[in-house]
């Protein structure tokens, strides 16, 4: 039986790594390899290891990073890029759990992970369910929690009349500390070899002896403790208590509570919800609590995995500004993953690219990286084309000289052919040196063992599979697809009005974007549009031939639940069941392939094993197979990486039907609804925006609306207008 997946991380260790016992916001680890294996290392067959001889045995599993270089400078904000499935989250987890040997154990690392696992203590997202939101955030700092616990233990020992109680307390604490040191010594001994390994094993024996000594003292009876030991241990307990109290005073609990309150309010909490128990909060609000807990800790390294997933645009803008301020006021290093391009651009100073099992670095934000990438691709592509033409010409000349030389027995022709062949073999390749200057063989390729230049490698796009939507079914007669006339809605007669006098008409080809803060009524409006809710007042009219495709916020969760209930269900079998006789297997495979689910992924991988991005593609395939005229998409980017968001924007831009898009992603709204080819973001070549629309085609209606206080307000200046209003609010919040 296989155990749970295990992360195995190895790296080259220098003497600086081995001797560094101090926390640091910097990481410099070479030769990093990370493998995910489903079998514990002990379960590997010994006979297989022996068969390898003296070679280094590798654990069976999937290697995500091979001989990489993890390099993070202190105080710098990094964005981690890579397609879904390349190992970004695994790398972050390996860092947070200090599975990478080159990261000093005392380094404080706080991580926000995309997980809803609940541990044995009853906490989820690392939060205690029985505590209030504010209390849970304050209690999330493990360093402070440990100091508070020790102060409590020591203080209570002095409150008793028993003079031996402080002695027992300090001995118990020493025993716990000795156990922790033994754990680190064991880890150290396992990682080192040679002379350093010998010293590490000596340290391990000393740690074991220390643990035995503290255990022996802890188990001593009252009669066995002499007066001198009582005096010494009591004095040690007093000094430790004073030191810990001084540490807590430096942390300043009042300031921490003020900061926690400010962060929670910035992330969307109201004053009256700060006192609610975590157990009563939804998953999205618990994630906000966890994000707040990470932000207030001010660790050495802060890791944020998709921090914007459950935030509305006000929360995203607030977090952008908060992290920008943190860059100037704190030495904390930040490494984040996000599909929100605008957020990455605003926050990150450098980009880390995980591609082909390697880590590459770019100094600048995402916009600068994409511009540089395109320039490099164009430059190196032209260089390679020119060199290929040159090589073809030289090879033709070599063949001609060889032919003439052999025919006429001309040694000069043969020498000339040999010389040119040597140039083709040894002097073709990259025409620039590592410093960017012109390549010189005697300077840049020194050494008898080096015989040729580096091959020209043209960078390839990292956007993953493209997406293509089928054209909408033609309507037999014209008319609006859907219209709302004077729509008002409230859940109960005495409840507040959620939607108030909303009017909207959508025709074929229209683009409508809906934005607004969480709780403003966007999803309620969509449910009225799709017929899931009946309006309290007003009229909803749809075209008699309308085919509607609806992607809801919980579409991925529904697929995950169905995958758990039907372990053998695949994307192919699911779609063939739903399409019935309308599509044959070939057509279904073609549709899934056009959505980026090709071959065995569609037919062999169970739905329960698909990644979040693959489930989004499957959910889209489920709603477009019938070629609907209207697509309604509610927060579709949550599980996607930014490469897939770009592909999605290109696919939606060329769709000939109508689109109603609810999203907090400013890039997606600008690209799909406003039709703008963003100068800061490279879109796919088949993107069809305002500039690409054909002159003979009817002009599409493009409108961005904001739902606020039940009203449906059009934004003449689109996303920019709404974002500007939120920036003003954020500046007021941060200045308080």
Description:
The protein is an alpha/beta fold and 736 residues long. Among the domains are: 1-108 and 299-307 and 323-364, Rossmann fold; 377-444; 482-547 and 627-735, Rossmann fold; 560-626, no CATH class. The chain is built from 24 helices and 20 strands. The strands form five sheets. The chain has a six-stranded mixed sheet with strand order 5-8-9-4-10-11, sandwiched between helices. Strand 8, helix 11 and strand 9 form a beta-alpha-beta unit. The longest helix is centred in the middle third of the chain and has 43 residues, at 366-408.
Give the low-confidence spans. Answer: 39-59, 116-124, 446-451
Query: What structural class do the secondary elements suggest?
Result: alpha/beta
Under CATH at level 1, the class of the domain at 482-547 and 627-735 stands as Alpha Beta
> What is the 3D shape?
globular
Major sheet: arrangement of strands: 5-8-9-4-10-11
What is the percent of helical residues? 40-55%
CATH superfamily of the domain at 482-547 and 627-735: P-loop containing nucleotide triphosphate hydrolases
- Gyration radius (Cα, Å) is 32 Å
Distance between the termini: 57 Å
DSSP strand count = 20
- Count every helix, treating DSSP H or I runs of 4 or more residues as helices: 24
**What is the CATH third-level topology name of the domain at 482-547 and 627-735?**
Rossmann fold
**Second rung of CATH, namely the architecture of the domain at 482-547 and 627-735:** 3-Layer(aba) Sandwich
């Amino acid at each position: 039986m296989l155990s749970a997946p295990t992360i195995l991380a190895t790296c080259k260790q220098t003497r600086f790594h081995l001797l560094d016992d101090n926390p640091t916001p910097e990481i410099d680890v070479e030769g990093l390899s990370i493998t995910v294996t489903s079998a514990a290392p002990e379960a590997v067959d010994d006979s297989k290891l022996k068969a390898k001889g003296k070679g280094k045995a590798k654990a069976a599993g999937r290697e995500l990073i091979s001989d990489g270089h993890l390099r993070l400078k202190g105080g710098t904000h990094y964005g981690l890029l890579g397609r879904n499935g390349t190992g970004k989250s695994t790398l972050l987890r390996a860092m947070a759990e200090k599975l990478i040997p080159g990261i000093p154990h005392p380094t404080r690392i706080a991580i926000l992970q995309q997980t809803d696992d609940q541990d044995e203590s009853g906490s989820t997202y690392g939060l205690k369910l029985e505590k209030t939101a504010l209390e849970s955030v304050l209690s999330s700092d493990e360093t402070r929690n440990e100091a508070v616990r020790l102060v409590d233990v020591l203080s209570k020992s002095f409150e008793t009349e028993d003079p031996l109680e402080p002695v027992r307390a300090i001995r118990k604490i020493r025993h716990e500390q000795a156990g922790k040191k033994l754990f680190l010594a064991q880890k150290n001994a396992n990682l080192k070899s040679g002379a350093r390994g010998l010293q590490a094993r000596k340290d391990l024996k000393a740690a074991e002896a220390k643990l035995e000594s503290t255990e022996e003292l802890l188990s001593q009876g009252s009669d066995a403790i002499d007066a001198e030991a009582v005096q010494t241990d009591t004095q040690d307990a007093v000094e430790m208590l004073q030191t810990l109290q001084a540490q807590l005073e430096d942390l300043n609990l009042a300031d921490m509570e003020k900061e926690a309150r400010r962060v929670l309010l910035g992330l969307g909490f109201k004053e009256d919800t700060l006192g609610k128990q975590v157990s009563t909060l939804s998953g999205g609000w618990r994630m906000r609590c966890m994000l707040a807990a990470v932000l207030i800790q001010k660790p050495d390294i802060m890791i944020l995995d998709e921090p914007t997933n459950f935030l509305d645009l006000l929360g995203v803008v607030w977090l952008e500004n908060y992290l920008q301020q943190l860059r100037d006021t704190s030495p904390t290093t930040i490494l984040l993953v996000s599909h929100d391009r605008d957020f990455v651009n605003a926050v990150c100073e450098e980009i880390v690219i995980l591609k082909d099992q390697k880590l590459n670095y770019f100094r600048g934000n995402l916009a600068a990286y994409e511009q540089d990438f395109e320039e490099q691709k164009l430059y190196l592509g032209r260089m390679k084309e020119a060199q290929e033409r040159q090589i073809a010409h030289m090879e033709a000349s070599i063949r001609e000289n060889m032919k003439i030389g052999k025919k006429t027995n001309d040694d000069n022709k043969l020498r000339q052919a040999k010389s040119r062949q040597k140039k083709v073999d040894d002097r073709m390749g990259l025409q620039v040196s590592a410093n960017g200057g012109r390549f010189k063989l005697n300077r840049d390729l020194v050494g008898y063992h080096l015989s040729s230049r580096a091959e020209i490698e043209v960078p390839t796009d990292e956007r993953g599979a493209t997406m293509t939507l089928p054209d909408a079914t033609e309507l037999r007669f014209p008319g609006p697809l859907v219209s709302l006339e004077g729509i008002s809605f409230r859940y109960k007669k005495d409840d507040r009005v959620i939607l108030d006098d909303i009017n909207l008409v959508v025709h074929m080809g229209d683009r409508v974007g809906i934005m607004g803060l969480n709780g403003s009524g966007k999803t309620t409006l969509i449910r009225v549009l799709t017929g899931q809710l009946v309006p309290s007042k007003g009229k909803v009219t749809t075209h008699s031939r309308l085919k509607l495709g609806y992607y809801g916020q919980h579409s991925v969760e529904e697929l995950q639940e169905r995958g758990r209930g039907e372990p053998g269900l695949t994307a192919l079998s699911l779609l063939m069941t739903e399409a019935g006789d309308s599509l044959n297997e070939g057509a279904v495979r073609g549709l899934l392939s056009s959505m980026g689910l090709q071959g065995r992924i569609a037919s062999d991988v169970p739905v329960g094993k698909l990644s979040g991005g693959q489930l989004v593609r499957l959910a889209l395939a489920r709603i477009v197979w019938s070629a609907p005229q209207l697509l309604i998409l509610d927060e579709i980017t949550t599980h996607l990486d930014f490469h897939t968001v770009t592909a999605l924007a290109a696919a939606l831009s060329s769709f000939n039907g109508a689109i109603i898009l609810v999203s907090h992603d400013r890039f997606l709204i600008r690209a799909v609804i406003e039709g703008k080819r963003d100068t800061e973001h490279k879109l796919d070549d088949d993107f069809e925006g305002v500039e690409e629309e054909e002159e003979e085609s009817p002009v599409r209606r493009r409108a961005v609306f904001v739902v606020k206080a039940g009203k449906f307000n059009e934004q003449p200046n689109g996303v920019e207008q709404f974002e500007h209003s939120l920036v003003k609010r954020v500046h007021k919040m941060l200045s308080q």
